[in-house]
Write a structure and sequence with these properties.
alpha/beta; Rossmann fold; 2 domains; 18 helices; disordered C terminus
Amino acid sequence: MDWFSEFTFFTEQEMKKLQTIYDQDGLSKFATRIVTKLDDMKNAELNIAVTGEAGAGKSTFINAMRGLRASDEGAAKTGVNETTMERTPYKHPDFPNVCFWDLPGVGSLEFPMEDYVSRMEFTTYDFFIIISNDRFTENDANVAKEIQNLGKKFYFVRSQIDNDIESLKKQGIVFDRKEKLAEIKQNISCGLTKAGISDPNIFLISSLSLNEFDFPQLKETLVNNLDRMKKDVLLMSLPSTTVKIVEQKRAQLMKRIWMVAIVSGAVGAVAVPGLTFVVNPGIIATVILDFRKSLSLDDASIESLANIANKSVEFLKAEVKTPLMGEVNDALVHQMFGRSSFFVEVVQSMLPVIGSIFGAVSSYRMTYTLLTDALDELVENAQRVVKVAFATDPGHPQ
């Protein structure tokens, strides 16, 4: 992956265009282009199709990806019978630009294969999850081929794998769990290969255990196979159930900081006609609140993590030790100014175009430093919550 992909939401070509805009049109046009990119990020949508036969576990999977239980408000209906008779959208409760579409099972009298692709509007989705709780059928393979013809990505998810493991234990069968899971995956792969699907992406999961089996690898794969903005949208919507997810979120959020700081520098250096995105203590507070939500540190997210981990909300909140979890207002931001490290040389050395333009602009430097310090503090707290929630910290009980 190139450097621009690692550090910015802009392609190398877009960064060169920014330099040209600055050289030819000045700071005003330059800052306006950054604001446009921020707006594009805010409005970016992600549509994920989840398909499979009745009882495969589609609804439970959709709920898990949105951090919900079946009993929660807005959860997808679950049941052994086909509860979905038309494609049904389920927006993420905190990130409404992320939408999971629960599609009816293919192959029934109501949804024959020849009509399925058009009726389910396959062209509108960013990628597909094909779910089964047993073996994948000919219908599943046919759906995959249709998706492949559209040039879109798809992933085979074998759900309820915990039931398979538990069943073997109850039968008194002695087995190595790692080897057994590899055997199940190999059998699935062979079946799909015979059906005409080469190198299928297969994940064995339990939608009731987000950190077990292949669920962490599935989430990581989905995120890494998306482009810059859609990658950001999906990653921020995922429950922060592992330290690695928190670290990935930090890397993504760092990409936003310099953009906000650039606009701050532009506003601090010159008057920008028509520019409404003005960085001030109120804007900084808003960004910090966005950080909290993205890192699963807002009240709703902590409650969801408590439900997933079977821990009390109070137990998790006790691990959050930062004033940034209280009211984030102008007074708090002014306190942050007082203890700022005012360190920005690293970002300038990594972004020569930006560094050369804003190296001497104090508003850019201060905004970057304040938001970086706030992000680091929130990440540290988010990691601590994850460790105690999922018992990865040996100092806390299971």
